[in-house]
Design brief:
The protein has helices spanning 2-14, 20-44, 47-59, 61-67, 73-92, 98-113, 121-129, 136-165, 173-179. It is mostly helical and 180 residues long. The longest helix has 30 residues, at 136-165. The radius of gyration is 19 Å and the shape is globular.
Length: 180
């Protein structure tokens, strides 16, 4: 009953021409602009560059076009920004609890949204190893924590696929065959 009332109120306020997915795309694109600002500020240590990249993203043609379409690109932009932001946070941070968890969570959500991003897993592990700001044991600890959380978050889906396909399938049978 509550859902019906919300839908009726939605139609009264906005009409039937504005689908909820376009609003979700606008929210995802807005949040991605915030993370572009934060990421640029961390990498370049400059507010001017961060503001410039954020404004550029606001006026970028494809960014505007994708917001009004019901496709997954808006979500992918947000997730790529989240993965990049939390990877940089893990890279520069001495802590490895919450930043590594958020990094793992955003990466898992990214490759479940589009399985092509699974190929970045080896590159991310190389990024952990090449971090010369920390001693090797801390780098390995962060990498093992990242892989452990990622495996923990993907385990239910892998188990579901094992029951469904009678073999170990990571995401879909198509990805499974391309990995072999």
């Amino acid at each position: 009953l509550k859902l019906i009332c919300v839908k009726i109120l939605w139609v009264i306020l906005f009409g039937v021409n504005i689908p909820i997915l376009i609003i979700w795309n606008a929210i995802a694109q807005s949040i991605s602009i915030i993370f572009v600002y934060k990421l640029t500020k961390i990498i370049f240590s400059s507010t001017k560059i961060a503001v410039f990249t954020s404004v550029w993203m606001i006026i970028y043609w494809y960014h505007i076009v994708w917001t009004s379409r019901v496709i997954k690109e808006s979500l992918l932009i947000l997730l790529v920004m989240l993965v990049a932001y939390y990877f940089v946070k893990v890279f520069y941070s001495r802590k490895f609890g919450l930043p590594v968890f958020l990094f793992s969570l955003s990466f898992v959500y990214l490759f479940y949204t589009d399985e092509r991003y699974l190929v970045y897993l080896p590159l991310l592990s190389i990024g952990f190893i090449l971090n010369e700001k920390e001693i090797l044991s801390v780098r390995l600890k962060k990498m093992v924590t990242f892989f452990g959380i990622t495996l923990l978050l993907t385990a239910p889906w892998i188990y579901r696929n094992y029951l469904r396909y009678d073999k170990l399938v990571i995401l879909t049978p198509r990805v499974h065959q391309s990995l072999l």
